[in-house]
Amino acid sequence: MAAFIYDIVIVGAGPAGAVAAALLNKQGFNVCVLEKQHFPRFVIGESLLPYAMDILQEAGLLRAVQAAGLGFQYKNGFAFSWGDRYTSFSFLDKFSAGNGTAFNVQRAEFDLLLIREAEKQGVAVRFGETLKKFDNEGETVLLTVERDNGDTYDMEARFVLDASGFYRALPRLMNWELPPETVMRQVHFTHIDDRITSPKFDRNKNLVCIHPEHRDVWVWFIPFANGRSSIGVVGEEHYFRHESTANILKETVAEIPFLAEILADAKWDNGFPFRYLPGYTTKGKGLYGRHFALLGASGEFLDPIFSSGVTIAVHSSKLAADCVSRELRGLPVDWKNEFAVPLTTGVNAFGSYINGWYDGRFQDLIFDVDKDSELGRMVCAILAGYAWDRENPCVRDSQMLFA
Ligand SMILES: Cc1cc2nc3c(=O)[nH]c(=O)nc-3n(C[C@H](O)[C@H](O)[C@H](O)COP(=O)(O)OP(=O)(O)OC[C@H]3O[C@@H](n4cnc5c(N)ncnc54)[C@H](O)[C@@H]3O)c2cc1C
60: part of which helix (H) or strand (E)? Predict the structure, then answer.
């Protein structure tokens, strides 16, 4: 028998791990989170959606975020610009019930805050400890964990939730990874001192700018409360002529008149590195198995265009926590129909809109739709992250927008 025995071991202390841990701890389970890094650590994914706020609230974590005084940027919507076209959506006008606002956050501080809050509530958290081996063939799961100094020890758990994000701890150990089905797109990004004074820019909204000629190349602009912003460009490799991320970003901004104007005084070099990702999609052979389930990007990640990653991650935590809790109480659980299928419904709704974004149909829709109409409010609800609201006809049939 291993020296450490828990009801649930969660791999990864990002938002998916913190939310699952807090929800299961609230239900009286003995929960341990393993985190290979030491927080605060950088991770991409700084724009949160209102639906994620609902889940943080349910997990008892939202109050800490609101009270933190860490300068998270209040946000009430999305703005889009393409050439001389500009449109914005206010989350408060969305079709679905629930929160109408959210935050943009520096993830290093945000993730530390969430996991510390879960810890205060009673969750055991071990930083600098990496899951190395996983054996789920017995009545419980046997885990081998490596400490920073290279020592290893064994742990036992009744259930394991993999919230390891893009590292994909369990899919790698089980050889469950699949090659991406979609086109490979690169990302170049950094943080800048934006020094924006233009009244054309609404700091309470994220800005997405489409390249004037190449509609499948776009820039995210995510303002923070401290005068800095996250800026990144996404596109296929052949669009990027320069070798350096700094030059790619600066040239792209120069090619987009709206951005060039509002960022005329921006300071680009401020100690934050210019970063590059050669690709970002993840997909695996499944989302659950004997005594385990995959959360967030460990299960699947499609695309950053709608800032849906953290929202999908915490929604998966909520669904999984409910199933784990019943399974460990000896109640029957249908993992396919109570976890995988409902999770995939929303992911697929985002997937249809992502496809529509890159082929131009969703872009046309957001610039043309009457935002005060029922359809406009339904689109707005998707942008706010309510992709699992079956009351919304655009969730039930994600193709109806393009009919
Ligand atoms: C370019 C880009 C832009 C994005 N923008 C957004 C955005 O604006 N908004 C948004 O919501 N999402 C965005 N995302 C998605 C977002 O990054 C992820 O969906 C989100 O971080 C997932 O959170 P998580 O809790 O699942 O994982 P993470 O936050 O990645 O946490 C996983 C943790 O697991 C730990 N870990 C890994 N392996 C092990 C192991 N073997 N043992 C122990 N610990 C381990 C890691 O150290 C890490 O801390 C973006 C993604 C990309 C690629």
Answer: none
